[in-house]
């Protein structure tokens, strides 16, 4: 029987341990701009997937994803031992690292929304100065003319 609540708690703890270890204990320069975003643990608590993002040195600089992945792979053993010491579970989960695509997708969605807003603004400007193609009330009837007399 899989205890999902226990797996979620363990995943949260693993995420915190790995993030702290990367920030304060592991001195690999390739991991300077790595941020742990989430962790998932299998139901049997044997494997953990840690999701991470990589920031560039500046806002305009492209992140070095390959170096970050190589640094995490090199530190995998140390991180697993820290997870084992920090969690106290019978079997320390095997760690795997996956680049988190959510921030990139969010940036892409923001760009699409900005483009849609710009197009909406253009349409609103055109509509503000628009006039009817024919009469103001094209559905006049003969009865309306008789009522007016």
Description:
The structure is a single chain. The protein has 149 residues and is an alpha+beta fold. The protein has 5 helices and 3 strands. The protein has a 3-stranded mixed β-sheet. The longest helix has 27 residues, at 102-128. The protein is elongated. It starts with a helix and ends with a helix.
Quick tags:
149 residues, alpha+beta, 5 helices, 3 strands
Distance between the termini: 85 Å
| Overall strand count | 3
Question: What is the H/E order?
Answer: HEEHHEHH
Helix content: 40-55%
Radius of gyration: 29 Å
Spatial sequence of strands, sheet with the most strands:
1-2-3
- Uncertain runs: none
Mean pLDDT reading: 87
Molecular shape: elongated
Question: How would you briefly describe this protein structure?
Answer:
The chain has 149 residues and is an alpha+beta fold. The protein is built from five helices and three strands, in the order αββααβαα.
Q: How do the helices and strands line up, and which of them pair or pack?
A:
Elements: H1 4-25, E1 34-41, E2 47-54, H2 65-74, H3 76-87, E3 94-99, H4 102-128, H5 142-148
Parallel strand pairs: 2-3
Antiparallel strand pairs: 1-2
